[in-house]
Design a protein that fits this description.
This protein is an all-alpha fold. It is built from 7 helices and no strands.
Length: 131
């Protein structure tokens, strides 16, 4: 069972686009200063609270289609205050698993000797002649 103040935090967290400090302050955890920031961090790292936030997002009917439509609206017809909306869309996307890890791209090392360079050039010429 989630306590009423934690429920308020969850509601405010979803409403405020994922700002844990503001949500903690609105739920009665401090006045928006350091205590609110620490309480927000503590709550947002709690597994039970995370599950409740996910449930609140799903219950709010934030479907993939709705997110895509809102994102398109922000991009095509921007207006003041859309930065906060974009943050909310981004947060919901993360909760839904759309924040795939980035693949690291590494440039292969350069050839070290003239023989390696000659070998690469030979292979490149053979490929271009073959096509």
């Amino acid at each position: 069972m989630v306590k009423p103040r934690v429920r308020r935090f969850i509601k405010e967290y979803v409403k405020n686009g994922g700002n844990a400090t503001r949500a903690a302050c609105a739920a009665g955890y401090g006045d928006g200063g350091e205590y609110s920031r620490l309480a927000g961090h503590r709550l947002i790292t709690n597994d039970n609270v995370i599950r409740e936030i996910e449930a609140a997002i799903n219950q709010a009917g934030l479907s993939d289609q709705l997110l895509a439509r809102r994102l398109k609206q922000i991009i095509t017809r921007p207006k003041e205050g859309d930065g906060i909306s974009l943050g909310g869309v981004n947060l919901v996307g993360k909760w839904k698993g759309y924040d795939a890890p980035k693949e690291k791209f590494e440039i292969p090392p350069m050839p070290r000797s003239p023989e390696e360079i000659d070998d690469i050039l030979r292979r490149m010429r053979a490929i271009t002649r073959g096509s």
